[in-house]
Amino acid sequence: MTLDDAEAFAVEQGWPRFRGEQVWRWVHDKGARTFDEMTNLSPATRVEFAAKAMIGGLTIAEVQTSKDGTRKLRLVTRDGQSIESVLIPMGDHVTQCISSQVGCAVDCQFCATAKLGLKRNLDAGEIVDQVYLGRRLLEEQEPGARLSNIVYMGMGEPLHNYDNLIKSLKILTNDKGAKLAQRRITVSTSGLVPKLEKLGNETVRPNLAVSLNAPNDDVRDAIMPINRKWNIGKLLAALKAYPLEQRRRITFEYVLLAGVNDSLADASQLARLLRGFKCKVNIIPYNPHPEAVYARPSPAAIEAFQNECKRLGMSTYLRIPKGDDIDAACGQLANRSNGSPVVPLRIRKGLPPPPPVE
Ligand code: SF4
Asked: Is 141 within 8 Å of 133 (Cβ atoms)?
């Protein structure tokens, strides 16, 4: 529920409106996972709430830790579906990659999630709960680590689950709840043109990343079937019209596949394509997975591609793969287990209550 939903729910139940906000703040500000933790509610009210509402859609089934410190969480929904979310250490802070769907229907040829097909959309509660579980896990296992950035780049195409995407963004950025800054959230899409146009008109303003991966339609058609519906021309036209906040740029993701899109000619075609765009390009050397038919280019080929991009004036960043030893890197999420033991989260009692509702 958004805060408005929670207040309307309270009124529907015949409770005072402020009760909705009170409980909502416990969940989204304080991170309560049970009604028992809500110490400023009477025991009778807690029982009444527990009979009519649920907190948290997910439980942690497994946490795998990479040698570089990346943690992959396998999370189970109430109906027994598995999804994954990844906590990536980035210097003094942590970025969390979250999922928006169970599986994905987009079928990018290089992606392990695509092999699962689409099972269902996650609801907004399941999307935000990944963040709350990530925060709790860090609190318990690495006190002092700060979860500062969220990227919708895990399993699923967020714009295929549009309403829940927007609802989750509104919840996560509400300053009475999780208080995440909009500029610290990035939504990554494979390029659903009509939904991009819609996203541009929303009041929530996350950063935008677009999975481009090709310098021309021939290559993109082959590796991203979505390109046959909305080709590069249509995609870039929609992005040109996208209202960007001041000092923000679109990020283009470019997964580098050996012999497919990694030549110097590809770099120069890419530079021509993106000329005049307020953008940066993240070069992501391909992360292989068991079903993969592609290979990661050699270090020399990766360096040569990036150097050519830079020489041609593109702002590029090389994304060093993180968590690839536990199948947690970009494009590898497919619910693979390594049998790590489950560490249950503590139920916290005695939390200071959220400030009183005016
Ligand atoms: S890369 Fe993203 S959009 Fe493409 S299949 Fe994988 S999860 Fe879906």
From this structure: no
Atom number of ligand 1 nearest to Cα 190 = 3
Asked if 191 and 226 touch (Cβ cutoff 8 Å), the reply is yes
Domain at 56-326: CATH code: 3.20.20.70
The residue among 104, 61, 65 whose CA lies nearest residue 88 is 65
Handedness of CA 224, 227, 232, 238 (dihedral sign): negative
Mean of pLDDT over the chain: 93
How far, in Å, from the CA of 36 to the mean position of ligand 1?
39
Ligand 1 touching residue 159 (CB < 6 A): no
Collect all residues with Cβ–Cβ distance below 8 Å to 71 and sequence separation of at least 6. Answer: 63, 64, 65, 86, 87, 137, 323, 328
Q: pLDDT for 238-262, tens place per residue?
A: 999 999 888 899 999 999 999 999 9
Q: Name the residue of 102, 157, 210 whose CB sits within 8 Å of the most ligand 1 atoms, as the mutation to test its pocket.
A: 157
Longest dimension (CA), the chain: 70
Domain positions in the chain are: 1-55, 56-326
CA-nearest of 50, 134, 32 to 348 is 32
DSSP 61: E
Q: In Å, how far are 189, 213, 220, 283, 313 from 216, measured between CA atoms?
A: 18, 9, 6, 16, 19
DSSP conformation letters of 261-282:
T-SHHHHHHHHHHTTT-SEEEE
84, pLDDT greater than 90? yes
Of 1.10.150.530, 3.40.50.1860, 3.20.20.70, 1.10.10.10, the CATH number of 1-55 is: 1.10.150.530
pLDDT band, residue 289 (cuts 50/70/90): confident
**Nearest in space to 186 (alpha carbons), one of 206, 201, 169:** 206
pLDDT tops 80 at residue 352: no
Distance CA 54, CA 333 (A): 28
Position 253 scores a pLDDT of 97
